[in-house]
Design a protein that fits this description.
The complex is a heterodimer of chains A (218) and B (204). Chain A has 218 residues and is of the alpha/beta class. Chain A has helices spanning 2-50, 74-84, 104-114, 131-145, 156-169, 196-214, and strands at 63-66, 90-95, 97-98, 102-103, 122-126, 149-153, 174-177. Chain A has a domain at 63-182: HUPs (Rossmann fold). Chain B is α/β, with parallel strands linked by helices. Chain B has one domain (38-203): HUPs (Rossmann fold, 3-Layer(aba) Sandwich). Chain B is built from eight helices and five strands; from the N terminus they run ααβαβαβαβαβαα. The longest helix of chain B is centred in the N-terminal third of the chain and has 27 residues, at 2-28. The chains are: A alpha/beta (218), B alpha/beta (204).
């Protein structure tokens, strides 16, 4: 009887030890996972944002295209810079018409001219409310002018999607991407979640990618 | 073991299904969540902030002005391209439609990461002219958020604020909005702005 009780006590003790060691193991796994998440999440988020950027080796082309939608005109500034360096003979700007009689493309044209590009070298594509509309308008213009290659200038966060869309809309032509350099006030992939304007742009860009890939809203 | 796996797989699938259904329901309730009832009160000034490609709020603002809701109009906006401030053109448009030139002002705001960061400048402008009440005409999808956010800023400075929008804009925006790119973009964009602003002190 005494022997039996002692055996039972030993069994209970080892069971409790087992439970404790299981708990300790789970605890260690949880701490390891949380630490990994804490240290790896910023790295992953940075990588994901860097994935939005596409920058190609520059090739001399027929035209430099500054895509629309940059109220600071940094895309146009970059396009004018590339034109001055002789990467292409022509520049295309893009914009939309507002009901009050002004056109953002016209303002972009004036800005490019102020950067030294002659008026006759600048063309404009209009009513480009989104990247897909812009890509179609650009394809039409390139066909009309007999241009076969273009350097696409846009903001860094938009560069990969813009190239995907433009290349999809004009499969026979060659394009290369030369985005606006990152760094304040422009979008910057490093620690983008810490800046309100960058976080909005990044999250919206992922949404736009999803929409582009599934061929959703046009 | 296999039964346990099946049970877990079923639970995960049900959870994902419920989450997807919730997201779809939330998507279709966006207009109800974002658009507040428009309210109009006699004010010292109309702050005209509904300036965008798809806005037709001019008629509404002119109607408010003619009805004597406010004697002054301020067209508020940031640049959309190089030295291009839409407020300047909107001001000219209002004048050409019969509003007295001395009653319309264009307020040029610097580019900011969010609307909340611009509100102190607008309040400062309103206070500097001694106005005690303002009627903010904004985009319909921005109305509830502006009402919540801007009212606080204005009232702290002793300026009463009412938020309204053009009924035509609202009708146009909500008509088949989930089928149109720019309408969906504006609804979803506004929802994103509201969520993101919570995390950044300069926007609250």
């Amino acid at each position: 009887m005494k022997y039996g009780i002692r055996n039972m006590n030993t069994a209970l003790a080892s069971l409790s030890n087992l439970k404790q060691s299981k708990l300790a193991r789970w605890g260690a796994v949880a701490i390891a996972c949380l630490s990994a998440a804490y240290f790896l999440t910023p790295v992953l988020l940075n990588k994901v944002a860097e994935g939005l950027i596409r920058e190609d080796r520059l090739v001399k082309s027929d035209v430099i295209v500054a895509l629309g939608g940059d109220s600071r005109c940094n895309r146009e500034k970059r396009a004018a810079e590339l034109w001055r360096q002789g990467w292409a003979d022509n520049v295309v700007v893009s914009g939309i018409n507002y009901p009050w009689g002004f056109h953002t493309g016209e303002a972009a044209r004036r800005y490019v001219m102020s950067q030294g590009v002659p008026e006759e070298k600048i063309s404009m594509i209009c009513e480009t409310l989104n990247t897909r509309a812009e890509a179609r308008a650009l394809d039409d213009l390139m066909r009309e002018r007999g241009w076969n290659s273009a350097i696409i200038v846009t903001s860094a966060f938009h560069s990969r999607r813009a190239m995907y869309t433009v290349e999809g809309a004009a499969p026979g032509r060659s394009f290369c991407s030369s985005p606006v350099p990152t760094g304040s006030p422009e979008w910057t992939p490093h620690a983008w979640w810490s800046r309100r304007d960058d976080v909005y742009v990044t999250v919206r860009e992922f949404g736009s990618w999803a929409n582009t890939l599934v061929g959703g809203w046009q | 073991m296999i039964n346990l796996r099946k049970r877990w797989a079923r639970r995960v699938l049900i959870s994902l299904g419920l989450l997807a259904a919730g997201c779809v329901a939330l998507f279709f309730t966006l207009p109800a969540l974002l658009i507040a009832p428009a309210s109009v009160a006699k004010s010292d000034v109309i702050l005209y902030g509904a300036i965008s490609k798809h806005s037709a709020a001019d008629k509404y603002v002119i109607d408010l002005y003619r009805r004597g809701v406010a004697r002054k109009i301020v067209c508020v906006g940031s640049q959309v391209s190089w030295e291009l401030y839409p407020g300047d053109y909107v001001r000219d448009g209002l004048v050409s439609q019969g509003v007295n030139a001395e009653d319309v002002i264009s307020l040029r705001l610097p580019l900011a990461p969010c609307g909340g960061a611009q509100l102190p400048r607008i309040v400062e402008f309103v206070k500097a002219r001694g106005w005690k009440s303002a009627l903010y005409v904004t985009h319909p999808e921005d109305s509830r958020y502006t009402d919540n956010l801007a009212r606080g800023f204005f009232e702290r400075e002793g300026v009463a604020l009412t938020v309204s929008y053009s009924p035509e804009d609202m009708e146009e925006l909500t008509r088949g909005w989930w089928r149109t790119h720019w309408k969906t973009q504006r609804m979803v964009g506004e929802a994103m702005i509201i969520i993101l602003d919570r995390f950044y002190s300069e926007c609250r």
